Amino acid sequence: MTVPEDFGWEDAAIVRFRRALLDWFVRHKRELPWRGVKDPYAVLVSEMMLQQTQVVTVIAYYDRWMERFPGVEDLARAPLESVLEVWAGLGYYRRARFLHRAAQEIMSTWGGQLPSTAKELRTLPGIGAYTAGAVASIAFGKPEPVVDGNVSRVLARLFCLDGDLSRGEGQRTLWGLAGVLVDKARPGDFNQALMELGATVCMPRNPTCVDCPVQDQCAAFAEGDPARYPTPAERTRQRPVAVGTSVVVAKRNGETKFLVVQRPAEGLLAGLWQFPSIEQEGKAVPDPQALLCLIESYLETPAPPHVRHGLGQVVHQFSHIRWRIEAELFIVEDFEPSEARVREGLRWVNVEELKALPMSAAMRKIEGLLQGFD
Ligand code: SF4
């Protein structure tokens, strides 16, 4: 960790900063389901969910998760499919898989109790410096710093930090500063307060400095243009991928079944279920004939008489990929899917079962397009 040479705050300034921030936090913190919770497992769950996902989105997922897996042992014992099912829609599914594996390791290596230091926490799958610091400080009261996007922005403004803060020296500087500033008596509250300030006052475009409890110590405010910091990092370009998706529906005697297939266990959206789809690099729409061949390979027979309707287009973005999905409805009347052809990674499901499957948000958008079709 490095602290900038011109950091220049006396001990008294650090004490003043901590007090102002903590007092403000007590009065202005948002009521959130995980606030005040000291159960280390619950803190871990909330912190994993909050990575790359907004608070408002996380609330419902957190409540549902804690209802379904109230303790580390419940999570460790659950099949991965149930875990993904509860996570479905939250995105960045690796986090769910890591959480599941971490729970299993906590049971097998740590006797069911989360380790209490940041160093030990970092040995668990998927737990990096941020999560380890958050759990150690919030659940165990250890004087560990945290640096996330909100903290980075606040520190960049407080100290007018120029340059790329997302890696290397920039990251070392942020962690160094956060380590010096963290309140040694109330590290959990302090870390949450710094993140809360970034989320609700020191916002990316329009910081409301007039409401800021540490305005008198902020170098960017004194300079007159706080939003100039942090320097924007170069955006990662998203790769366009064209996807052809077919919602294959078999109808017979008033019953409707959907063909769903499971994605590979590794890679993007690993292990989630989806409608038969073809993905190809670039913007050209996948050939409908290729989609038909794919469906026939799943059916293990030439396609029975069917009708195809266009359902429309869906755009879905990942951090590095942009999916443009051309969706269609593929209806086979009077068709009874053969049980013999159901195999691992391929199922025929009714509407209720479809709703319960762990599917990506992109597939749920396509499911939404089915409204209006019988
Ligand atoms: Fe952020 Fe403004 Fe507070 Fe500085 S004064 S920390 S820019 S909200």
Q: Outline the low-pLDDT stretches.
A: none
Number of helices: 15
- Terminal Cα separation, in Å? 61 Å
- Which molecules are bound besides the chains? iron/sulfur cluster
Rg from alpha-carbon coordinates: 25 Å
Main β-sheet description: 7 strands, mixed
SSE pattern, N- to C-terminal: HHHHHHHHHHHHEEEEHEEEHH
Strand fraction equals 15-25%
Level of helix content? 40-55%
The average pLDDT value, as a whole number, equals 91
The outline comes out as elongated
How many extended strands? 7
How would you sum up this structure in a few lines?
This protein is of the alpha+beta class.
Secondary-structure map with pairings?
Blueprint: H1 11-28, H2 40-50, H3 55-68, H4 72-77, H5 80-87, H6 94-109, H7 118-121, H8 129-140, H9 149-158, H10 168-181, H11 187-200, H12 219-223, E1 239-252, E2 255-262, E3 273-274, E4 277-281, H13 288-299, E5 307-317, E6 321-333, E7 346-349, H14 351-356, H15 361-369
Bound molecules: iron/sulfur cluster.
